[in-house]
Specification:
The chain folds into two domains: about 110 residues, SMI1/KNR4-like (3-Layer(aba) Sandwich); about 190 residues, no CATH class. The strands form two sheets. It has a five-stranded antiparallel sheet, sandwiched between helices. It has a four-stranded antiparallel sheet with strand order 1-2-3-4. The longest helix has 17 residues. It is α+β, with helices and mostly antiparallel strands. It has 13 helices and nine strands.
Length: about 325
């Protein structure tokens, strides 16, 4: 049976980059033939039939469209000014087979480079789509440079839960202190101790971190720990293996949220610092959370609250490892 790479080569007389052909071989059947009108599994990406048909149409109608470029998706419309009037035109997603980069091109031929490779462009979108398939709740994972920050964030979410602003399915914190010891703390402490916390572990052990296309991109866990993660639950072996890949003084928050007040969550995360590692939120929602994390705390009340949380964290996760 002819694969996508051979189909594209025969139809378009072009050799496409391996990261894109690998993706299409595995997931092309999940993409719509008409992403202009149909919702796509990966926002905007089209099926093999769309790619071939639309690329041939561009080559025949758009002067100067390079034979090394392939139209792989539809981005939507954008507004331009033509003769002092506003006009909406279509914008498409293009792969340059020459250097592997990803660009947008509109219907008048204006191009904008948005990623150096398909892999760079697809990783966050692939993770988001996979997470949405795996969980009905929204998952968010945030990594912090300070050992206390993830637990502070966990306590903040639990406070929002107590106040009725968040419905949490699970919250887990992993911490590596300056002495090299790694500890974990969860919302359901007994479940954590008994190794029954399958939801968070399912996220870590699933195809999201160990998928051949994206497995090395997150840089948090190496393939060497896959065996210990294969069983359900966050156990001691998992913690030990993860410690080898966590920098000293770092912490990570993994949260499954059924529903929440976005404004209150944004306020709660304000000034924490940290980086959203992955989430199943929309791109806009994730960007809003990241913006809140990046805010500087200039309010004394926030500073005071942060000091209180740090005290609570030091009690739950002591800095000194057990002897």
């Amino acid at each position: 049976m002819e694969g996508f790479a051979e189909y594209a080569s025969r139809s378009l007389d072009i050799k496409l980059p391996g990261d894109y052909t690998s993706f299409m071989e595995n997931y092309g059947k999940k993409l719509p033939e008409d992403p202009v009108r149909e919702k796509s599994w990966i926002r905007g990406l089209g099926s093999p039939e769309f790619v071939i048909g639309t690329t041939l149409a561009f080559r025949s109608t758009l002067p100067g469209f390079s034979s090394k470029r392939v139209v792989i998706g539809y981005m939507g419309t954008k507004t331009i000014i033509v003769n002092r009037t506003y006009e909406d035109i279509d914008e498409y997603l293009v792969l340059d087979a020459g250097d592997g980069s990803i660009l947008t091109v509109d219907s008048v031929g204006v191009t904008t480079r948005i990623a150096s490779s398909f892999e760079e462009w697809i990783i966050p979108k692939f993770l988001r789509a996979t997470l949405r398939e795996k969980y009905t709740s929204n998952l968010i994972a945030v990594v912090f440079d300070e050992s206390v920050k993830a637990e502070e964030a966990r306590l903040m979410l639990l406070e929002l839960k107590r106040e009725g602003f968040a419905d949490l399915e699970d919250v887990v914190v992993l911490v590596k202190d300056h002495y090299g010891a790694v500890r974990y703390h969860g919302m359901h402490e007994q479940a954590v101790k008994e190794g029954l916390l399958g939801s968070i572990t399912g996220f870590i052990v699933g195809s999201i971190l160990f998928n051949p296309l994206v497995g090395g991109a997150l840089g948090l866990i190496s393939g060497a720990v896959a065996a210990s993660l294969a069983k359900s639950g966050i156990d001691d072996q998992f913690v030990e293996d993860l410690s080898k890949n966590f920098k000293a003084g770092c912490s990570a928050l993994f949260a499954l949220v059924r529903k929440a007040d976005p404004d209150r969550v944004g306020e709660g995360f304000a000034g924490f610092g940290g980086k959203v590692l992955v989430s199943s939120l929309s791109e806009e929602q994730e960007a809003a959370i990241q913006a809140s994390l990046d805010e500087r705390r200039e309010n004394s009340e926030q500073l005071s609250r942060g000091s209180y949380k740090s005290t609570a964290v030091s009690h739950v996760l002591p800095e000194h490892p057990e002897q």
